[in-house]
Amino acid sequence: MGRITALLAGASGLVGGECLKRLIESGEYARVIVVTRRDLGKPARHPKVHQLVVEFDRLGDVREKLRAHHVFCALGTTIRKAGSKAKFRQVDYEYPLRLAQLAHMNDARHFSIVSALGASRSSPFFYSQVKGEVEEGLRSMGWRSLAIFRPSVIAGERGESRPIERLGEHLLRLAPATWRPVAASDIAAAMVAIAIESPPDVTVVESRDIPAWARKLD
Fold this sequence. Notes:
two-stranded parallel sheet, 7 helices, globular
């Protein structure tokens, strides 16, 4: 059994749920702290898992409990689900940066985040702008090891209905590798593989390269 502690945010989502499975299965990790707004139920009952239930706008209240070697951020929503651009920005920009700031202050060594294909603050699309801004915010913190994942459409069985994403997944199956859907399980495996390696500075993993990284964990 390893001695690494992981901190995971977004475990109730598609990629985050897969990431939790991978962290539990990995012999490199002795403990997994899951930050969540609500009880995850059965997945959080594993002996490795310590569940920390807290509203994300109050993370500062539990700063001392956010101590880990590796941090995994799979937080994300859609503008439709969030209800407004401001709410979307809160979940996809403010919460990840606050988590990163607190973990960095607690001497975390590695941070991984799920961004998106085409992320850029100069993008004409609001979604991509926000993703680009959070990437820039993370880069400015001076992480010893930072991994940014930019998947295209994320494939997998969701607990909620997202018909537009489901349609995009089907339409893009025969597209070039850059645009092809990528499995949530592959994203999670790639995140864990790179965290274990913890390459110095910033590693940007584009969608087409995620499956190859995922295979390194197997």
